[in-house]
Amino acid sequence: MDKKIDIKILVWLEDVSMAIDEINSFFSDRPKVFAEFANDLRTKRAVERNIEIIGEATNRILKTDENIQITNARKIVNVRNQVIHNYERIDDETIWNIVINHLPLLRSEVEKLLSDNNTQKLLSPMKKSRS
Fold first, then answer.
1. How many Cβ atoms from other residues are within 10 Å of residue 28's Cβ?
2. d(Cα 127, Cα 119) in Å, to the nearest integer?
3. Maximal CA-CA distance, the chain
């Protein structure tokens, strides 16, 4: 039988899932078009903030259990660090590439980890702040 994942990790996985959902919600009423994204400062900043959350949660997961399988987990944390500490070096293309090419896989992996552990939606810190 597989070992159950620590509850703290499940909460952080839920945070990642919610941040991805929030990013996707920014495009729910319009197609994902790079030029529109690049010219929408509010959406860019909101996406960057959610990428920070995804990176921080992933960092906490790795520190708690380095055996959790998340593709490119270290790169996710590195992007978070770059957004926070080297914000002047982040370009719109990098963020857009993450949204289009990397978040779908991350979402799939996170949802699988959550479903494999028979979790219902947990009361994560992100969920508490939105209630």
1. 6
2. 15
3. 50
Instruction: Give CA–CA dist 17/111, Å, rounded.
Output: 7
CB–CB of 14/53 below 8 Å? no
Tens digit of pLDDT for each residue in 73-126? 999 999 999 999 998 888 999 999 999 999 999 999 999 999 988 765 555 555
What single-letter amino acid sits at 49?
R
Distances (CA, A) of 112 to 1, 49, 95, 107, 115: 17, 24, 24, 8, 5
Instruction: From 44, 5, 4, select the one nearest 23 (Cα to Cα).
Output: 44
- The closest alpha carbon to 10, from 77, 94, 105, 110, belongs to 110
Residue 13, pLDDT > 80, answer yes
What distance in Å separates the CA atoms of residue 57 and residue 14, rounded to the nearest whole number? 9
Helix axes 41-64, 7-25, angle to 10 degrees: 160
